[in-house]
Amino acid sequence: MQYSSEDDDLPQLLFDAIFPMLGIVHSARTISPGKIGILRALAAEEHVSATQLSHAIGVSQQAISLSTKELESFGFIERHKDESDRRKLWFRLTEAGRQKLQAEIALGRQALKDAIGKELSSAELKLVRDAIPALAKIRKAVHP
User: Fold this and answer.
1) CATH at 52
2) Structural domain contains residue 107
3) How far apart are the first and last CA of the chain?
4) How many domains does the chain have?
5) Which Gene3D superfamilies match (predicted)?
C-alpha cells in the first residue's frame, strides 16, 4: 500500500496519539528525560565523551556538562581520562547508575502499563498490539 493524499493528516494524528504517552512515562520517573538519555547512552557504550553525549541526546554541551555533574554527584556516572591522551575526558556508567537506569525504565513502563490497563478495552488492546509491527517499521526508517 502506498501513502496517499487521504493520509496527509496521519503523521499529525500519530504524533498527537503517541506524544502524550511519553508524558505518562516521563512523569513517573524521578530524573529528567535528558539524564535518562545520558544513562542510556552510557549503558550502550563502555565510555562516551561529552561531545558524543551531546550528539546522541541532541542537547547542548552546556546541558551535558550540568547533567553529568549532577549524575556524577549521585554516583551514577564517573569521569576518567583517556589512557593514551590525558586531555580527553570520558564518562562511564557505574553499577549504581545501571541500577538507577533500570529502576527508571521500570517506573516508566509501569506508568504506561497502568494507563493502558485503565483506558483500553480488550478489543483496543488487540488493535494496539497488532499495530506494533507497523510502528516498528516507522522507527526502523529513522533509526535502522
Assistant:
1) 1.10.10.10
2) yes
3) 21
4) 1
5) Winged helix-like DNA-binding domain superfamily/Winged helix DNA-binding domain
Tens of pLDDT along 98-122?
999 999 999 999 999 999 999 999 9
Q: Dump pLDDT digits (tens) for 29-54.
A: 999 999 999 999 999 998 899 999 99
Q: Which three cell numbers stand for residue 98?
A: 545501571
State the Cα–Cα distance between residues 99 and 118, nearest whole angstrom: 28
pLDDT of residue 1: 56
Domain hosting 45: range is 24-142
Q: How confident is the model at residue 5 (pLDDT cuts 50, 70, 90)?
A: confident
Phi–psi pair at 51, nearest 5 degrees: -65, -45
Unique residue bearing C-alpha cell 589512557: 83
Task: Look at residue 15 and tell me if it is in a domain.
Answer: no
